[in-house]
Amino acid sequence: MQNTYFRRGFGLKQVIQPIIAANYHSSLVDTIREQGYTATFGELTFRLAREFGFCYGVDRAVDYAYETAHKFPDRRIFLVGEIIHNPHVNTRLQELGIRFLHPNADGEFDFSGITPEDVVIIPAFGATLAHFQELSELGCILVDTTCGSVLNVWKRVESYARDGFTALIHGKYQHEESRATASQVHRYEGGKYVVVRDMDEARLLLDFIERNDRARSADELRAHFAAKASVGFDPETDLVKIGVANQTTMLASESLAIAAAVRQSMVIRYGEEKIDEHFRSFDTICSATQERQDAVLELMKDPPDIMIVIGGYNSSNTNHLAHLCRGYTTTYHISDSTKIDPAARTISHKPVLDPHAPEEVVHDWLPAGPLTIGITAGASTPNNKIGEAIENIVQTRGQTIP
Length: 402
Prior knowledge:
Elements: E1 5-6, H1 13-24, H2 27-34, E2 38-41, E3 44-48, H3 56-71, E4 77-80, H4 87-95, E5 99-101, E6 119-122, H5 129-138, E7 141-144, H6 148-162, E8 166-170, H7 176-183, E9 193-196, H8 199-210, H9 218-224, H10 235-238, E10 242-246, H11 252-270, H12 275-278, E11 279-281, H13 287-299, E12 306-310, H14 316-326, E13 330-334, E14 340-341, E15 346-349, E16 360-363, E17 371-377, H15 383-396
Parallel strand pairs: 1-7, 3-17, 4-5, 4-6, 6-7, 8-9, 8-10, 10-11, 12-13, 12-17
Antiparallel strand pairs: 2-3, 14-15, 15-16
Helix pairs in contact: 1-3, 6-7, 8-11, 13-14
């Protein structure tokens, strides 16, 4: 029987590596790294965070997509959504002939045009249980690039559902990864989940658990979480036993704080001696996300004059890096190096955490005189975009890098 499911690559790494290097490598970034993550050009001193750019999971997903294009040159290749949240990388994959399938407003995909002769790539974020099952039944070749850190979260959520715990997921309910993670509860009949965006939203549930004066009614909570919870979500019964998980790219400190707050609410309601019957939590924070956030905080011990954060506007981990930096210094979150225009002396950036916020164009954003500029990038940003951004900043001053 023909194997139609692949997760471990096709042994073409040596073939595609020169192409990957040509598309995403930066000798300038390598040089700055070798110089202790610092370089000075004229009056501009650049400081790179010590962890930035492609993480292992992204690197693997991109490599695997390129391998797929070389393995199946005569077949139609589809991608469920985006491989990662980076416009440059996704454009490169489209240039390889990979066709992108886009979800509707409810996160659903139309797979009706896919045949058993086609190849479908599952992105690093994963796919919902229902979408995976639908694709499997179609008989097409499936290439699964789901990140290992995401799979670890899925295992925890699945175990919560198995043992009758509602999965409380810290994440963005419309994000591909959170949808896929939440769907894992359906491996068991009666599995439940609820997604909270931040501590304020988690607090709505915690007040209800504690039965304090701020608590909203069960009906109010049902209405608020109607699109963010499993069908039939009932606060009266579904908040008795909770297991905490998270979208891997959320702000790590907030995920930990939410877990601690849930535990405390369960202690208030049921007592410390019964906590194991009502609360579970495991460390499901992605190490790469944590490392990049820690590196930014280390850089902010001596904040640069300006911080540049590079990555897709719909990239959760990039948005959180920018949010961290804004607490310390002037920060510009740009989706691509082209957002810095040396000729016009402008920078186009997204000024707030909301991924759907419009760009703002800032004129003469680079003040005269000596400046220290910090640079970091989300886990889906290739090094060439970082190098190009540095070059564009130097050119804004009318200089070039030797």
